[in-house]
Every structure is written in C-alpha cells, then in structure tokens.
Design brief:
This protein is mainly α and 186 residues long. It contains five helices and two strands. The N and C termini lie far apart (94 Å). The mean pLDDT is 82.
C-alpha cells in the first residue's frame, strides 16, 4: 500500500510539474495519455529508457493463480487416482439375468460403480422423490381450492352486503330534531 501511494504521489507531482510548465506536451495532443501512466526517472547516462511506466501490481493475481493451482491439484490428483483405480480394478457392471424371486434395489440399475455409490448414499430413492412431488402437487391443489373458495366468499359478501367492512349504526329516527324544517321562515 505504501509503494502504491508513493507511486501515486510521484505521478501527481509529475502531472503538476507538467501543468506548471505550460501547454506544451511531449507527445502529440491527439494521443493524450493519462497523467498517472508515466513518471520521469533520472538516469546516470544517456542510455536506457527516459520514462518509467507505472503499472498495477500483479502480486495478488499471481498469488490467486498459485493458490488456485495448488488447491485444484490438491483435490484433483487424489480424485483422478481414485477414479482410475475404480475403472481399472472394479469396472462397470455387466448386464445379467435376474434370479428368480430377487428384487433389485434402485441403485443396482446404474452401470458405473461410482454412480451406484452416489445413488445409494447421496441421492434419495425414486419412490421418495415421487412422494415428494405428489405432496407438492397436493399442496398446490389445496391452495388453488382455497383461492377459489375465497373468491366465491368475497363475491357473495359483495352481493349480499354482509362483508367485514366498517359500518356505523343508524341512529334512531326519534332522536332527530325536525322542528327547524317545519317552519323554514323563522
């Protein structure tokens, strides 16, 4: 961070020196450069570059790539060895006749042993998936039925006028003073 702030200070000083010098630019005005891309550097002889190009640090990029490569190899090499072992020494299942009276389990229908292991220990059986889907459909059907009943109840309340709306009790007609209406000229 300190190196970056030092580079920014150098770039800002170079920009300020250029502005104080006047409008003359060392490069064509059509291809104007940002003030933070070049900074002057002293050389003890006339050989070599006259400008030091400032670029962003690649430390974090290389660190990320190195860690990514490390963790990919850390997990990838054992997984590749395991898959190679399973393919060479165990192999895929062969199709055979089912013995009389034997009911195969659902994971026995998969050909590859890794697929069989995943189906047996990680995934739900197909019967359970079917029951979950049927329960979801039943819940949605009940929601639809309740929505239709609610719409019908609202329609009937609006038609009959007996809804839960706020209303005021009408006062008794005997409490109204109509004496002023009997003689309007007074």
């Amino acid at each position: 961070m300190a190196a970056m702030s030092l580079l920014l200070l150098r770039a800002a000083a170079a920009c300020g020196a250029r502005r104080a010098a006047g409008p003359a630019l060392p490069w064509p005005s059509r291809a104007a450069r940002l003030p933070s891309t070049l900074a002057p550097v002293r050389h003890s002889s006339s050989h070599g570059k006259r400008m030091f190009i400032i670029k962003a640090s690649s430390f974090y990029d290389t660190r990320f790539l190195n860690l990514l490569r490390f963790y990919v190899f850390l997990t990838g090499i054992p997984v590749a060895l395991f898959i190679t072992y399973v393919n060479i020494f165990i192999g895929e299942a062969e199709l055979a006749e089912i013995p009389e009276g034997y009911v195969p389990e659902y994971w026995e229908y998969y050909k590859h042993p890794i697929s069989r292991w995943i189906a047996r220990y990680c995934l739900d059986p197909p019967e359970k998936d079917y029951e979950k889907e049927m329960a979801l459909l039943d819940v949605e059907a009940k929601k639809t039925e309740l929505r239709l009943m609610e719409l019908e109840a609202r329609r009937l309340m609006r038609h009959r006028g007996d809804g839960p709306w706020y209303h005021y009790e009408t006062p008794d007609k005997n409490l109204i003073d109509n004496s002023m209406k009997s003689t309007p000229d007074n």
